[in-house]
Amino acid sequence: MGSILVGTASWTDSTLLASGWYPKDVTSPQERLAYYASQFPLVEVDSSYYAPPAQTTVSLWRDRTPAGFTFHIKAFSLLTQHPTRPAALYKDLRERLGETKKNIYLRDLDRDIIEQVWDRFLTALTPLREAGKLSVVLFQFPQWFPIARRNKQYILECKERCAPLPICVEFRNHTWMSEENQDETLSFLGAHEIPYVSVDMPQGYPSSIPPVLAATAGLAVVRFHGHSAKWTSKDVHERFGYLYSEDELRHWASKLRRLAEDAETTHVLMNNCYRDHAQVNAAQLARLLPHSARPA
What we know:
The chain is 38% helix and 14% strand. It has 296 residues and is an alpha/beta fold. The strands form two sheets. The protein has a four-stranded parallel beta sheet, with helices on one face. Strands 2-3-4-5 form a four-stranded parallel beta sheet. Helix 8 links the parallel strand 4 (134-140) and strand 5. Helix 11 (246-260) packs across helix 12. The longest helix has 15 residues, at 246-260.
């Protein structure tokens, strides 16, 4: 069985800061990340989806975490074909656009601007990559990204652009993991050694993906989104405001142990980021997994 690392998809959420999870004397960004890293060996950076991080910020993440700590970086929304606010673009590139719509898409931009966004986003990650603290770049594709030859080709383009950094992919269009396409999807990812991101999430919605655990590369990734009854809410805290029970986690622990038999390393991320739900559940799950890694 490979090692299992458990962490969460946030350490700075405003409701987490208000929950009392951090000790009262832990108040600065530096202290919070250091404290988080003393509790978990893994974290996902979600803010990079909304705006590309500055290299100086990435350097701080490197300096504020111990050796052996690892990051997942969520790919910038523009690069996953999501709508993106023009204000999230680099200032000089934004000025080149002139008047724009409320949201822009990758297809709206000139090739040169696209190349600049890719280059700057990946270059900013250099401090973590060189320190051996960047595990993978997460590409979470939108609901309108179905299984298709052109979309498979785009996934391969993302892999090539990010190399030598590995990528992992999460889908929100059900066609990838429908009964008739599931084997094709997993075989495609396996053939190219791209980790499939298994998910636990509410079912019965157009964006729902079944909770299939699969290792398609040396790294296996599982993200837990909860089961909020308000999955379609525009309020992110209502969407992810779910606390897993001990029984639910115990059920998942046995499935994760089986998954870890097929991978060198398994990364588990709690994305039920409302108050301290993710941190509480991550700690519970880590205790239920005898092979899970602990912070040094």
